[in-house]
Design goal:
globular; 76% helix; 13 helices; mainly alpha; 309 residues; disordered C terminus
Length: 309
């Protein structure tokens, strides 16, 4: 996820407050498919546009309340920062758009798969782009994920493109987001602010052409679309305030809460089919994540980790 607004505290330890914030954010993200299913009758482009536009006042209000607008003003005067924010905004737009479409198309399991894979893809990305050395335990976990994706690909007769696009887009978003010289809340506000002109133009076009759902189809759709700002900005900003109060290893393990909830919702609430082959692929990924988490916990305690130990 995105970085916090202030430097991480000197003591590398967890706090109950930070855990509560982070857990709240991950649980809200875990329940997000229910909201997306509620707006599944609306065009994904329209839902995406409303997520952007309604996030601006929510994010702006948070910044004003927290009095964190000074570096945002500096960012707006920096062409380099604006260009980088434009890049990260474009990438997150792809991620959001695919997610919205996938839930509406009864492919929530594919989204869960993508977000389960993401942490290990980020490690792979760091090894390739930043030349970070992979630990043997990390390499084993990545190999297991590759095998799982190969199994799903063979069973489906094609690449699980929804999962892979979600994985790759979020991985690159997190990678480039670290170079944005503003905090998480300010960076998010800057991103949605840059996306607002095209998003607002699309909403106006949809309403004028009669295909929009904000004013055309009743109060329920209006309320659902207006709530998209809280649905989008709320969890992210809650997370940003919790992340700085937790150790990296704790955050790394907690990030599996949301995809686990999405998986359970897809199977038991949305009744999406789960073949034995796909279940086997998920089992391999869960094994990879267990290995990765174990290695991360060992590393956080200063204990060397070796594959097969």
């Amino acid at each position: 996820m995105a970085s916090s607004d202030t430097p991480v505290q000197a003591k590398n330890e967890d706090s109950a407050r930070g855990f509560a914030f982070a857990l709240t954010a991950y649980v809200l993200w875990g329940f997000l498919p229910f909201y997306m299913k509620a707006v599944a009758h609306i065009s994904p482009f329209e839902v995406l546009a409303h997520r952007v536009v309604w996030s601006v006042p929510v994010a702006g209000a948070v910044l004003l309340i927290l009095r964190r607008t000074s570096d945002l003003k500096a960012a707006l005067r920096s062409p380099r920062t604006l260009m980088m924010a434009g890049l990260t905004a474009s990438i997150i737009t792809v991620n959001w758009g695919i997610y919205v479409w996938a839930i509406a198309a009864d492919r929530a399991l594919d989204t869960a798969l993508g977000y389960f894979i993401n942490p290990l893809f980020s490690i792979f990305l760091a090894a390739v782009l930043l030349k970070e050395r992979l630990q043997p335990i990390q390499l084993v976990a990545i190999v297991l994920v590759v095998v799982a994706v190969a199994i799903v690909t063979y069973d489906a007769g094609g690449l699980p493109w929804v999962s892979l696009i979600l994985t790759v887009s979020w991985g690159f978003y997190a990678f480039f987001r670290k170079t944005l010289p503003v905090g998480a809340n300010q960076g998010f506000f800057l991103e949605v602010l840059l996306l607002t002109p095209p998003a607002l133009a699309y909403i106006i076009y949809a309403e004028m052409s009669g295909s929009g759902h904000l004013l055309q189809t009743g109060l329920s759709d209006t309320l659902l679309l207006a709530a998209s700002g809280f649905v989008t900005a709320g969890p992210l900003m809650i997370y940003a305030n919790g992340a700085k109060l937790l150790r990296l290893s704790t955050i790394g393990i907690m990030q599996y809460v949301a995809p686990t909830m999405i998986f359970l919702i897809a199977v038991f609430a949305f009744h999406e089919p789960l073949s034995m082959v796909k279940l086997g692929a998920f089992a391999l990924i869960w094994m990879a994540l267990a290995i990765y988490s174990w290695g991360m916990l060992k590393a956080s305690r200063g204990t060397p980790v070796k594959a097969g130990k």
